[in-house]
Write a structure and sequence with these properties.
It is built from 13 helices and two strands.
Amino acid sequence: MPQQRIFGLLKRHSNKIWASVAAVLFLAAGTFLYDALKGYTLAEFHGAITAVPVNHIYAALGLTALSYVVLAGYDFSALYYIQKKMPKLRVFQAAFMGFAFSQNLGVAPVTGGSVRLRVYGSAGLGGLDVAKVVTFAVLTYSLGIMAIFGFLLAFLPSYLTNIDHLPIMASRIIGAVTLMALLGYVFYVEYRRKPFTFRGIEFQPPSARLSIVQLLITIVDLCLASAVLYMLLPDSNVIGFFNVFVIYVVATTIGILSHVPGGLGVFDWVVLMMLGSVFATPTIIGALLLYRIIYLFLPLIVAAISLMLFEMRQGKKA
């Protein structure tokens, strides 16, 4: 049948399709950023960066460290779910390196998963269990994003009107349906005792209590990450932390969906578009540059060194 052929083609060429989508979005974001920046000089951007108080930079560094500690909660909850025990230091090590690589390079199941496979595998965890850990982390993040967007659409739709362009009532309905679906999922997994079976593989959904923990981990994670960006922006009576949190969640989600590594260009484009009426362009770009250095690039350097030292230690044991 024609429909089956179409689905078959989409399945076979899905990687090429996503790569093309990522390329188009990257070019579109790049074009927008170029148009937005071409009227400014390097001196203006340099001035915006040097205007950030040193104590705010220290605060951003501290929040980054705390954020990566919280990120380990994804791995701890996943290991609890699959009923596997790992030394706590090993979990922090795998989670930090996995997230540092995946948040910079994208394709989290591949980049973060391969690092976890190496670190957890050396401690005796099998490939299938590592895949479960990665899948659980993706599910955890997805549930958290679903809860945040559902809440915003249902109760604070005005925060998203510049992005979704939906009528207020339509936003509220979509948000309410999203929250009800999430609540229904929590009740369903609490009372369903039999695992799902898909292509011969059994999947036991996490309990309601663990699902709620998943939601909290994602919300705290995003609060800390957005606080890093907030600390690098000037103080303003117009926009507060919650506004920056919403902008960060929207920009991060679009960046992830774009499949562009690290959301490069796409994340920055969304933040610039949503903050453009509050701060000058050099101020926003300066904050974004510092954010990428502090929250993404520095952890990547530390993770790369840590992985190299880890491999050296493993080589000596062999």
